[in-house]
Prior knowledge:
The chain is 56% helix and 5% strand. The chain has 22 helices and 5 strands. The radius of gyration is 22 Å and the shape is globular.
Amino acid sequence: MLKRDAEASAAADEALAAEPQDALTLDTLGVVLSRIGAHERAVPVFRRAVAAAPGAAAFQYNLASSLRFVGDFDAAEEAYEAALRCAPTMWRAHSALASLRRQTRDRNHIARLLALLDEAVEDVDGELHLRHALAKEYEDIGEYREAFRHLAAGKARKRAALGYSIDRDRALFHSVESVCDTTFVERACSAPADTGDRAAAVPTPIFVVGMPRTGTTLVERILSSHSGVTSAGELQAFGLCVKQAAGTRSTRVLDPETVQAAAGIDLAAVGQAYLLRARTVVGGAPVFVDKMPLNFFYAAFIRAALPQAKIVCLRRHPLDTCLSNFRQLFALGFSYYDYAFDLADIARYYVLFDRLMTHWERVLPGAVLSVSYEALVMAQERETRRLLEFCGLPWQDACLDFQANQAPVATASAVQVREPLHARAIGRWHRYEACLGPVRAELEAAGIRVDD
């Protein structure tokens, strides 16, 4: 995708103005709107597609997904079930349905999921979706041994199919640390920030980064509940701008080759290009949140390209972080999360991440605010005040009531962040402690403390 969101939005509006009646055309336009984050606009378009072709499982699924993102979970459940009535082997609908609510012993889909397992035996991704759904539902009813058994079985088969090695990510982390050393930071960040009226007109991005499933969406919702802040969602814009300026021919947006080439690019120009891309999403918002977790790789480049930007990094207990990554079914086409199919790989990745964040503390002192997920949950107001102060924002009570924020949420936390803050996820690793030996061994070997 070219990520030319403004043009995509205008083209979709033009097409809709022609009042198309064809179901496929309507579904395609809904997909365009959902891809640019306009889920509230996508829902009625998907509804029209479903009305025109109620037997099309894919159209029902797309409607359900946008309904989930806008927080209409009851309607989303109905649409997912409608998709499954049309196509019982639409595997992704099963995993999406399981994640919509907390299952109970009296109300769950376990029998249906188990009955379908044999049909998915020839489909690695299909089995993965089913076993993720089973793991989620068994965990909800407190059967943690069964939950882990299904999770591990589905993950192991997918990892074998991928042929992933931690060496790929190890090379990437090493390249970032070697390029972004003290000398690079001093040179790249030496240009003084704008002052006066010109600086006041420059938008301030707040980058919320960290390993996935550590509270990044929670912090994004807290910040975007402030009247002076707009959410841009998970933009891929900064990485794309670096890639374009680096001019590397590799197929991945972020890889060692691109990091090495980025050492010599005009980062001020990258900053301007990024703001142009972001503007198509947030308009003229003076402050906006970019919640792409993997932007933690770019901290030094962000600091040089956007001196006014703020960077907030979420940290969570190492064992909960590793377990939460293992429990999550990430987008299967997004290879940057290929590490998440094996517990030992996740632990090794965590060690690399932890070392990189220590590196940023050394070469960019004070540039990145570290926020503990546990501290935020247990001392919400204190940590929220600390967060707002770092971002240069005045206090607003609305930031404590983030669950009232009605903006769409297109992340894995779409359900959780519409609830008041709770501590259910803290210490979840204790339920699976007997299964986390590989994680504990890797972390302890790296000198990372894992006890509470």
